[in-house]
Protein backbone atom coordinates (compact mmCIF):
# COMPACT_ATOMS: atom_id res chain seq x y z
CA UNK A 1 0.00 0.00 0.00
CA UNK A 2 1.55 3.29 -1.08
CA UNK A 3 -0.87 5.78 0.44
CA UNK A 4 0.80 7.61 3.33
CA UNK A 5 -2.05 9.91 4.35
CA UNK A 6 -5.28 9.03 6.11
CA UNK A 7 -6.96 12.16 4.74
CA UNK A 8 -9.60 11.93 2.05
CA UNK A 9 -8.19 12.28 -1.46
CA UNK A 10 -11.24 13.39 -3.44
CA UNK A 11 -12.09 17.08 -2.93
CA UNK A 12 -15.29 17.39 -0.87
CA UNK A 13 -17.24 19.84 -3.07
CA UNK A 14 -17.13 17.81 -6.32
CA UNK A 15 -17.89 14.62 -4.39
CA UNK A 16 -20.95 16.20 -2.73
CA UNK A 17 -22.18 17.47 -6.12
CA UNK A 18 -21.80 13.97 -7.58
CA UNK A 19 -23.64 12.37 -4.65
CA UNK A 20 -26.51 14.84 -4.98
CA UNK A 21 -26.68 14.33 -8.75
CA UNK A 22 -26.77 10.54 -8.44
CA UNK A 23 -29.21 10.51 -5.53
CA UNK A 24 -31.55 12.88 -7.40
CA UNK A 25 -31.41 10.64 -10.49
CA UNK A 26 -32.26 7.58 -8.38
CA UNK A 27 -34.81 9.23 -6.09
CA UNK A 28 -35.79 12.90 -6.42
CA UNK A 29 -37.26 12.71 -2.90
CA UNK A 30 -33.77 12.52 -1.35
CA UNK A 31 -32.66 16.14 -1.20
CA UNK A 32 -30.70 16.37 2.05
CA UNK A 33 -27.63 14.59 3.35
CA UNK A 34 -26.03 15.00 6.76
CA UNK A 35 -22.36 15.87 6.88
CA UNK A 36 -21.63 12.58 8.64
CA UNK A 37 -23.41 10.61 5.90
CA UNK A 38 -21.43 12.36 3.16
CA UNK A 39 -18.12 11.72 4.94
CA UNK A 40 -19.01 8.05 5.49
CA UNK A 41 -20.01 7.69 1.84
CA UNK A 42 -16.81 9.36 0.66
CA UNK A 43 -14.66 7.16 2.91
CA UNK A 44 -16.40 4.05 1.56
CA UNK A 45 -16.05 5.22 -2.06
CA UNK A 46 -12.36 6.00 -1.68
CA UNK A 47 -11.73 2.69 0.09
CA UNK A 48 -13.45 0.85 -2.77
CA UNK A 49 -11.41 2.66 -5.42
CA UNK A 50 -8.10 2.15 -3.58
CA UNK A 51 -8.74 -1.58 -3.19
CA UNK A 52 -9.85 -1.88 -6.81
CA UNK A 53 -6.63 -0.15 -7.91
CA UNK A 54 -4.55 -2.50 -5.73
CA UNK A 55 -6.29 -5.57 -7.17
CA UNK A 56 -5.96 -4.26 -10.74
CA UNK A 57 -2.26 -3.64 -10.15
CA UNK A 58 -1.84 -7.24 -8.99
CA UNK A 59 -3.55 -8.39 -12.20
CA UNK A 60 -1.14 -6.29 -14.27
CA UNK A 61 1.87 -7.64 -12.35
CA UNK A 62 0.62 -11.19 -12.88
CA UNK A 63 0.56 -10.48 -16.62
CA UNK A 64 4.18 -9.23 -16.31
CA UNK A 65 3.17 -5.62 -16.98
CA UNK A 66 3.52 -2.44 -14.97
CA UNK A 67 0.95 -0.52 -17.00
CA UNK A 68 -2.66 -0.77 -15.86
CA UNK A 69 -5.14 -1.60 -18.59
CA UNK A 70 -8.92 -1.68 -18.72
CA UNK A 71 -8.85 -5.47 -18.67
CA UNK A 72 -6.97 -5.40 -15.33
CA UNK A 73 -9.82 -3.45 -13.73
CA UNK A 74 -12.41 -5.73 -15.30
CA UNK A 75 -10.64 -8.84 -14.01
CA UNK A 76 -10.09 -7.34 -10.55
CA UNK A 77 -13.76 -6.37 -10.33
CA UNK A 78 -14.85 -9.82 -11.45
CA UNK A 79 -12.51 -11.68 -9.10
CA UNK A 80 -13.55 -9.42 -6.25
CA UNK A 81 -17.18 -10.40 -6.76
CA UNK A 82 -18.19 -6.92 -7.88
CA UNK A 83 -19.59 -8.07 -11.24
CA UNK A 84 -20.58 -5.63 -13.92
CA UNK A 85 -21.14 -1.97 -13.20
CA UNK A 86 -24.62 -0.66 -13.88
UniProtKB/TrEMBL annotation:
Membrane-spanning ranges: none
Pfam families to which the protein is assigned, alphabetical: Histone
GO cellular component, as recorded: nucleosome
InterPro entries tied to this protein: H2A/H2B/H3, Histone-fold, Histone_H3/CENP-A
CDD domains recorded: HFD_H3
GO molecular function terms listed in the Swiss-Prot or TrEMBL record: DNA binding; protein heterodimerization activity; structural constituent of chromatin
Domain Core Histone H2A/H2B/H3 stretches: 2-79
UniProt KW Acetylation keyword: yes
UniProtKB keywords: Acetylation
Source taxon at top rank: Eukaryota
Family note: Belongs to the histone H3 family.
Stated name of the protein: Core Histone H2A/H2B/H3 domain-containing protein
Record organism: Trapa natans (Water chestnut)
Lineage, uppermost ranks: Eukaryota, Viridiplantae, Streptophyta, Embryophyta, Tracheophyta
Amino acid sequence: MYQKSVNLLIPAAPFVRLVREISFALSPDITRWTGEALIALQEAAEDFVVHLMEDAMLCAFHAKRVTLMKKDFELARRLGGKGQIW
